[in-house]
Amino acid sequence: MGDDARLQDILTHLDQGLEAGLDRLVRFLRIPSISTDPAHAGDVRAAADWLATDLRDLGFEVTVHDTPGHPMVTARSQPGGARSLLFYGHYDVQPVDPLDLWDRPPFDPIIEETPQGCVIRARGASDDKGQLMTFVEAFRAWKAVHGTLPSDLILLFEGEEESGSPSLRPFLRAHAEELRASLAVICDTGRHADGRPAITTQLRGLVGQEVVIDAADRDLHSGSFGGLAANPIMVLAQALAALKDDQGRVTLPGFYDGVEDLAPELARDWQALGFDATEFLGRVGLSTPIGEAGRTPLEMMWNRPTAEINGIAGGYAGDGFKTVLPAQARAKVSFRLTGTQDPEAIRAAFQDHVRRFLPSDCRASFHDHGASPASVMDISDPAFGLAKEALGQEWGQDAAYIGAGGSIPIAGDFKQILGMDSMLVGFARDDDRIHSPNEKYDVESYAKGARSWARILTALR
């Protein structure tokens, strides 16, 4: 039997087994694997064990690894393929608060019809249990048709992604030899905003920094001390306001070291996406793009670095009024990075910037909140073109190479620690409400996601 005939048999098997596949996903979604809440540690372990059992039943060699935090699940198929592939997903989920905004209990999954189509609704449906299971269902159908699993597969399913992945980098270093493959495949992404399938080829990096400015040893009366004593909110506001110039460029010395203009091929692809910034902003009650002058909206979101103030606090902000000079002010600031920007160099430049605004009797302290470099994938690898073609065949429209404004640190970790690129393909939609009440995943996304992986596996074999 030829590859085309076997592929059609796999796709037919997936279609006929959709109801059973949804039943498996429902059982998986019932496990409240909230990794950030210690009260759910047992549930996270239960989710790892559930996955391990399902993978063993399929014929994978499976290990559930203890870590200082939550377990890592690894699985392998037999060697002998054209190229080895590592598939990554995470089985932990976000907290569910506020519960009163859910239409039904978040771990009581339901399949329901909506004006936008049939969906499965539960915490983790889209991020990332539903996406992870599109891998597994494709493997299941492959084995049913071929009699064996695809060869040279390595699976890594994490239980701490939603709580910062504290155990991941040490785990990758300790198990580098057994995890290293020719390409990593990550499913924690989505389709383009217009619904077409997409391969994410670049991700911005991230630096998080909290700054605290201390001045007097107590809050001061603004009549007695105003105009004489340093006001830490004013000091902080001046430093933060000076982070950007009137063209929207970040002013930190050396900030743009390593930032590269968009490659012409990607520039053409992104232009063809027809992105409407006014419509995009209109979804959140805005209308006018702001940012770095001379850059397109997609460049601003996907290919240019940023400096953003995420929170600021100090003084009195309650009801009524209090004429006070506060003793302390604080802010949380983040930088999204592109190209080869150095996260730690950016952190140091920001700290030096703040210190330049300090009066002699004010003090600044800094608290780090993570750092990861940007990731840019090498799309000259034939796997990208083959996957793009396979996605187009499944979805009936050309797949797009897109960027992502957010950060998925695991892609950088795979590159730095295991020396391999990642291909990011996911089937989530913008309206899946991930991290929010009433999270959902389209049944179509689930079904066509599994079919897509079957096509990609066939193309890469």
Automatic annotation (TrEMBL):
It comes from the Bacteria. It comes from Paracoccus liaowanqingii. This is M20/M25/M40 family metallo-hydrolase. GO terms for biological process: proteolysis. Residues 205-361 form the Peptidase M20 dimerisation domain. SUPFAM superfamilies: Zn-dependent exopeptidases. It holds the Pfam family Peptidase_M20. The lineage of its organism: Bacteria, Pseudomonadati, Pseudomonadota, Alphaproteobacteria, Rhodobacterales. Keywords: Hydrolase, Metal-binding, Protease. One of its GO terms (molecular function) is peptidase activity. NCBIfam families: PRK09104.1.
